[in-house]
UniProtKB/TrEMBL annotation, chain A:
<dbReference type="GO" id="GO:0005634">
    <property type="term" value="C:nucleus"/>
</dbReference>
<keyword id="KW-0963">Cytoplasm</keyword>
<protein>
    <submittedName>
        <fullName>Partitioning defective 6 homolog gamma</fullName>
    </submittedName>
</protein>
<feature type="compositionally biased region" description="Basic and acidic residues">
    <location>
        <begin position="354"/>
        <end position="363"/>
    </location>
</feature>
<dbReference type="GO" id="GO:0005938">
    <property type="term" value="C:cell cortex"/>
</dbReference>
<dbReference type="Pfam" id="PF00595">
    <property type="entry name" value="PDZ"/>
</dbReference>
<keyword id="KW-0131">Cell cycle</keyword>
<dbReference type="InterPro" id="IPR053793">
    <property type="entry name" value="PB1-like"/>
</dbReference>
<dbReference type="GO" id="GO:0051301">
    <property type="term" value="P:cell division"/>
</dbReference>
UniProtKB/TrEMBL annotation, chain B:
<dbReference type="GO" id="GO:0005886">
    <property type="term" value="C:plasma membrane"/>
</dbReference>
<dbReference type="GO" id="GO:0008593">
    <property type="term" value="P:regulation of Notch signaling pathway"/>
</dbReference>
<dbReference type="GO" id="GO:0030864">
    <property type="term" value="C:cortical actin cytoskeleton"/>
</dbReference>
<feature type="region of interest" description="Disordered">
    <location>
        <begin position="651"/>
        <end position="708"/>
    </location>
</feature>
<comment type="similarity">
    <text>Belongs to the WD repeat L(2)GL family.</text>
</comment>
<dbReference type="GO" id="GO:0030866">
    <property type="term" value="P:cortical actin cytoskeleton organization"/>
</dbReference>
<keyword id="KW-0131">Cell cycle</keyword>
<dbReference type="InterPro" id="IPR001680">
    <property type="entry name" value="WD40_rpt"/>
</dbReference>
<keyword id="KW-0963">Cytoplasm</keyword>
Amino acid sequence: MNRSFHKSQTLRFYDCSAVEVKSKFGAEFRRFSLDRHKPGKFEDFYKLVVHTHHISNTDVTIGYADVHGDLLPINNDDNFCKAVSSANPLLRVFIQKREEAEHSSFGAGSLSRRRKALALREDGPRRRAHLHIGLPHDFRPVSSIIDVDILPETHRRVRLYRHGCQKPLGFYIRDGTSVRVAPQGLEKVPGIFISRMVPGGLAESTGLLAVDDEVLEVNGIEVAGKTLDQVTDMMIANSHNLIVTVKPANQRNNVVRGSRASGSSGRSSDSAASRHSLPATPALLPLQPDDADSDDEPDVVLEGVLEPPRPAPRPPVNGAGPASARDGPAHRLLSSLRADPRHSLALPLPPGAVEEHGPAVTL
Amino acid sequence: MRRFLRSGHDPARERLKRDLFQFNKTVEHGFPHQPSALGYSQSLRILAIGTRSGAVKLYGAPGVEFMGLHRETNAVVQIHFLPGQCQLVTLLDDNSLHLWSLKVKGGVSELQEDGSFTLRGPPGAAPSATQITVVLPHSSRELLYLGTESGNVFVVQLPAFRTLEDRTISSDAVLQQLPEEARQRRVFEMVEALQEHPRNPDQVLIGYSRGLIVIWDLRASRVLCHFLSSQQLESVCWQRDGHVIVSCHSDGSYCQWPVSGDAPQPEPLRSCMPYGPFPCKAITKIFWLTTKQGLPFTIFQGGMPRASYGDRHCISVIHDGQQTAFDFTSRVIDFTVLTEADPAAAFDDPCALVVLAEEELVVIDLQAAGWPPVQPPYLASLHCSAITCSHHVSNIPLKLWERIVAAGSQQHTHFSTMEWPIDGGTSLAPAPPQRDLLLTGHEDGTVRFWDASGVCLRLLYKLSTVRVFLTDTDPSDSLNVQGEDEWPPLRKVGSFDPYSDDPRLGIQKIFLCKYSGYLAVAGTAGQVLVLELNDEEAEHSVAQVEADLLQDQEGYRWKGHERLCARPGPVRFEPGFQPFVLVQCQPPAVVTSLALHSEWRLVAFGTSHGFGLFDHQQRRQVFVKCTLHPSDQLALEGPLSRVKSLKKSLRQSFRRIRRSRVSSRKRRPAGPSGENGEAGAPAQARPRPLQGQEGAARPERAGVQSMELAPVQRRIEARSAEDSFTGFVRTLYFADTYLRDSSRHCPSLWAGTNGGTVYAFALRVPPAERRMDEPVRAEQAKEIQLMHRAPVVGILVLDGHNVPLPEPLEVAHDLSKSPDMQGGHQLLVVSEEQFKVFTLPKVSAKLKLKLTALEGSRVRRVSVAHFGSCRAEDYGEHHLAVLTNLGDVQVVSLPLLKPQVRYSCIRREDVSGIASCVFTKYGQGFYLISPSEFERFSLSTKWLVEPRCLVDSAETKSHSRPRNGSGPEKALDRTRNSGSQSDGEERRPGRVMEHALLNDERVLKEIQSTLEGDRGSYGDWRSQRVAVGYSLSNGGAE
């Protein structure tokens, strides 16, 4: 297996199957390369790393920076494979002594934010005597239930984070009719419902949305009176940070506040909707679209794109690079460039140049 | 706190908004869609057209227009003006009669419905007993005679629609008075004709469909005489003196009968089959009109030989040995002949033939030799070839206007010089404050220039690009010539010609520079023509250049149409816009965006593959840029491979139709449908309404069920870079701005794509003295990828004062202040989903409005408009006028991007209406409500073009006006009269005068027009007092 690890001297040389690795331990760098398609096993990689850094006798944790600038651990074959395959183009590896590793260093927080205080968190709850439950920020959130305190119990407000997620949002909506309690009695009103979940999609994987859930709001805007096409457009326009308020078809799993027993809320039909089907207006304030702008992704701007001095070799379009990296301007730019070979003609950056935040990239 | 103030709670702003914005749908231009009835009032000189959708439109003198809509959307079958009154009666296909009248309110006439009526038979009678076939408004002005399918003639009193049962002329009563031989086989036939004696109101002619005609004495209730024809009767005409009647028949013949009290059953004077002897189609309507010269006019519809010309839509005119069969390209709905209006006059003296065809109105001058057509000032057939795009240019300089008019007048030489004969009513609308052009591109490769300044949309000039290309059907012109000497003497009239020689000729984009007279036109097969206005005929060859937009991208195969083949060698061009450069995009995909900069002499064009810049001064390509995404196979292969998306869109539209049907069924009450079911079969009237209701309810339920079985689903997925047609260039924009650094501004070209990318190129245009020597250079300076990836539909640069940059040459002509180059410029990028303001030269986002995220609507059209205040004359603001995919029009403020107002304008299902919308620079807009009609709307309080007109009742004017008395004096007179009628009218022009003096922009225009040195040609017919007000506004009047 060691065959796959080449020590590479010529880092400028770009080979489509080789992944350049820059490994950092303390202030020291080591550079080598891995085969993108056959990275090998974690065990071998670990040996290689401690060998190249000459720290064979130290217990270390290994982490890498993913495309979003998050520091993620490498501690088994799976995440090692993921690390190598997602390297784009450079795999940056960070090594820490296990005893120095802090608990809170891995996770969704951007690497750039914590670059000064790099610390890896070990991955072994087994080492501790008591059972350790991972902190939320060890993982990148994909979804959350929000505003539980201000919504009626029958409703659920779900936030889907698509930041950097490769998964499709993965659901369909349809027209339908919903039954409301009106002063004149029950009345049928048109509504929008989730009609289908794409297996493996983000929506399905969260478990917070289900087929036949009625969509009440999209990012704080009521959908009542809007057509299916309008709601579709609203959802797509908010897809980078989608907040859907639904009335779940299955009312069993509702969050129950107060002293009521959980058994009291059974599966409710649509007609069980309360009069206050939508939360009071103050509850909507945190969702005002302008406030949500902080989550908005900035646009990519390339300035001063000049004629290339010589045509750069076109990078392979093998789909290995994630096409849509989502934060950190440099990464985003880089990934969009990789995804789109057109740019390679206009912007002949050497693969390593991105690290230096070259003048070609501004935000 | 700011947040709560933000969305328009500032009372001062709210007040100002009321002064600036107001939504009105003002006029419908063009030809009514699906006309179904024609009416004409000799005394009012007003024409009425009814449509299948239940609209009634009245037209008089240019600018005099009224529209009414029946509550029911049933087709209008007949229109009859009540003699000598401002009232008319319409008959709908649900057998209901409606009385409309023109009432004066506030000095302006309004068309309103006074009442409606459905004729009811005695209980138990068959529905056909009361099915109205003919309506005769009696000259007593209070009686309507209604002929029915049963043969009975009912009498109804107006205006209350009271049935006078004792006056009914039943078919039995008529039959009893007939001799035995006339009585047989003539029972239960319907009334086909009903006419009042031209001189004696007590006699009425009744024609029955089987060929029997009787003259009925109303006083004595008896038959005066009867005429028996062996053929089915179609129509009858009673001559002016009442001595002769002419009947026309289903076998293509007509007969003249003498009328005299002596012989109760006369024989025909003459019987004639004009296009015999072989079987002919019916003559459906006939006029027999006398002239002072003695020889009568015979004008009839139909009667063509069945076998060889049965499919033609013809109206024949016979007079003095001449015979012409006017051959219309669409079905003839009805026609009438304009004659001497005074009933006491001895002769008819017909002056014009007015024909309402399905797709156009044709008026033929019967007084001039050769019977030439008259050019209508309104009711233009916009769709004579399908409209593919439109472009509006506001405030055309007088010089250019006159040149276009001059070029057009040379094309209109075949028209009669007759004054427009339908000239009833008086237009009180103030003269249009400026000259506006609406340019429409058509499927057959023509561009039509319309005068869109006022209420009447008038064709000024037609430009054809076909001449530049080699097409298969060139010798088509000679075909018509060949047909001349044949019998019948057919002559094609009208302009409606929906058949395009070659779909690739279709015009897709138009850009006119009003200062230089340069015009760029781009079409379906990637052709871009640059044209120049030339007052002389010229013969020259067109420079041809190919723009390879794919550049080095290899391995792609274009499966779409081939490019057009240009005609080699010099081509002769008529005066007007003459092409001098032809750029052909390769692959020849449809041109999706076009921009022309006449000062820099550059034209930019974009397709689904990329965009290019062409220097039309040096006739050299500056650069091309490929915008294709390599994975976008659909765009590469051309329109033929869009099968998938086409299928999808078809499916969607079917669903839409189904849904709308379901909802319309829900809306319609069960009553009328029940009655319709009843009309089909006689007898068994009782259970029918019940069945009808059931029938109406069933499909509704079925519709709901089908929706539940196959719900419409929409996928929720973020757009990715791999989507199709991301490289489609949606917008191109030239700007002189700070692209690279804040110290130097330079010419630039901006392009926005379907995938949310904006490219900016810095241009170096050599100074004028070296313009021909040095090449224009371009360098890509910026590229912006909007992360939401929605299509970019508009790009705009705002100067240091947040004012949009002026048009090219606008400053050079002193018509605009030079842009502020001191403060920082800003870039506005409008995508379908968001409005975004960026700083320049360093592009960083400053402001945005996320329209789609907020309300789920998408931008379809966006344009900068100047909104003037109706209160403070010199106050105005620049804002964005926006049309969304929901059919709403909105105003979004500049530069803060605050939504100001929103009005719903077009039905969201009306996709073609939304796609056809075009905004003007002053807050008005046009969109197609049918293939042949533009609706005009206004968002501005100040710029409002709408008909304001007065129709006085016949008594006051019947003799006062000479018929063809032409010219300014008459109009002057009229305007004076009307002005004195209402105080409100007097005040209007006065206010305009103030504003003209105050508004410096206007003063500039005045200076411009004096420089042009032309006076009095435009709008000189205005009254003296009004003219003072307007002399500063456009300099045209004296």
